[in-house]
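TASK: fixed-backbone design
INPUT:
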């Protein structure tokens, strides 16, 4: 995944994080509000439970005296030790008298002394002058023939002590849980983004693998999400139109070149048979030969682009090298260049179209013979799965290197020394054979090297 400001991955991550951050913040606020309400509810419920425990521990003895018999020693200790913060009283509803107290020392003030004489049934609370809160609870019940009320009082100091003991642990656990949940959320987000982006990356990978000579290939629509299926289909339709246009262009070039061959041949014959001034005839014949050369190379280019017409078979590169050197031997003499063939002793066989490979090798050698310096050395080197043409000429500049395989490009555009199609034909044939072309602008001889490597 690539994360930058304009990438889809970054936009998805930003949206996920913003939404996730908002959701987690809302959850934290809700938990805080719920914890406050839960604390109040817990106080009320706990006091109700304590009042019921007191009620269940009350009995009348044989002297008809109300006695408190708790099941646990801790309950007795709590009401005695925390008399100023925790206490209860039992009141007779009919007489209004307090018949039992949790702490009975009359010389010591307790929390019960600050309580109102009459409490509403259920939970209630009061705020003292110093701001402290007292929680109270009353339940009314029948015990034998007596109608009694249990009044329970507890200061918030008891709750605060419990909160101070428990709150840090709860805060730590809550923070740890929220943090772990957020990390899990981020991890799930990254995995989800990777899963969402994978189809787009697959489409991009397929596009990058399509070469100029593979316009018949189409993007696979298998496992493509519905949201990007129109984009993939649109690209396939665009490639279909490009292929059709390219095929029409190739057919036009091939047909035009083919139709021009005959008129040029007739024109050449008529010029030869016609009485033309000696000073005009050479230039006229040169122009005719140049046009014939351009037409022949256009036909070669059309054949190179039409891979369906290739007849692939086992081809010996050394035999091709020998045939081409014999064919261009006279040209090397004409241009006063030294032509040599250096072939490897090992077998140099590949699967390819023999005619196309001869054209490829011939065009490379012709370029070297035409453009190398006078008396330069031109070498055709045949190795295993490789054809190299090396010369001792002036070499190639870096600016010219990027234009070498453009159609109709020549270093000297005004000179009619070539059609500018030779290296374009080489490129098409190399691509048709899945070969790579390497251009070395300056070799050890001072010139350039063209190297075609077959896979």
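OUTPUT:
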């Amino acid at each position: 995944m690539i994360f930058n400001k304009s990438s889809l991955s970054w936009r998805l991550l930003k949206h996920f994080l913003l939404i996730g951050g908002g959701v987690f913040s809302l959850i934290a606020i809700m938990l805080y509000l719920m914890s406050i309400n839960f604390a109040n509810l817990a106080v009320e419920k706990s006091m109700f439970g304590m009042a019921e425990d007191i009620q269940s521990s009350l009995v009348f003895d044989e002297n008809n005296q109300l006695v408190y018999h708790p099941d646990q020693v801790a309950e007795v200790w709590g009401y005695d030790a925390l008399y100023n913060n925790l206490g209860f009283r039992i009141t007779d509803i009919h007489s209004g008298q307090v018949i039992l107290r949790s702490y009975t020392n009359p010389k010591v003030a307790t929390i019960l002394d600050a309580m109102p004489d009459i409490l509403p049934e259920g939970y209630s609370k009061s705020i003292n002058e110093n701001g402290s809160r007292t929680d109270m609870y009353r339940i009314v019940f029948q015990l034998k023939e007596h109608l009694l009320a249990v009044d329970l009082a507890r200061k918030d100091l008891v709750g605060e002590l419990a909160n101070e003991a428990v709150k840090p642990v709860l805060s730590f656990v809550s923070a740890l849980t929220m943090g772990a949940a957020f990390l899990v959320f981020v991890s799930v987000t990254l995995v989800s983004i990777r899963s969402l982006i994978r189809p787009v990356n697959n489409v991009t990978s397929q596009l990058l693998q399509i070469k100029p000579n593979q316009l018949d290939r189409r993007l696979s629509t298998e496992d493509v999400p519905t949201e990007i299926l129109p984009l993939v289909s649109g690209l396939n339709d665009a490639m279909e139109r490009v292929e059709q246009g390219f095929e029409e262009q190739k057919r036009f070039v091939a047909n035009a070149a083919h139709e021009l061959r005959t008129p040029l041949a007739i024109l050449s014959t008529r010029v030869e048979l016609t009485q033309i001034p000696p000073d005009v005839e050479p230039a006229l014949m040169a122009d005719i030969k140049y046009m014939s050369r351009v037409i022949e190379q256009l036909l070669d280019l059309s054949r190179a682009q039409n891979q369906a017409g290739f007849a692939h078979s086992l081809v010996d590169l050394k035999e091709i090298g020998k045939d081409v050197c014999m064919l261009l031997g006279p040209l090397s003499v004409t241009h006063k260049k030294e032509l040599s063939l250096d072939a490897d002793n090992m077998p140099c066989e590949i699967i390819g179209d023999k005619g196309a490979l001869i054209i490829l090798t011939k065009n490379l050698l012709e370029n070297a013979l035409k453009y190398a310096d006078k008396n330069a050395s031109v070498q055709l080197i045949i190795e295993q799965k490789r054809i190299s043409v090396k010369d001792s000429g002036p070499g190639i500049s870096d600016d010219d290197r990027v234009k070498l395989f453009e159609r109709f490009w020549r270093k000297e555009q005004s000179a009619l020394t070539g059609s500018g199609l030779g290296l374009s034909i080489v490129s098409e044939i190399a691509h048709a054979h899945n070969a790579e072309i390497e251009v070395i602008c300056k070799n050890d001889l001072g010139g350039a090297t063209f190297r075609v490597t077959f896979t």
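COMMENT: The chain has three domains: 1-209, 213-309, 311-453.
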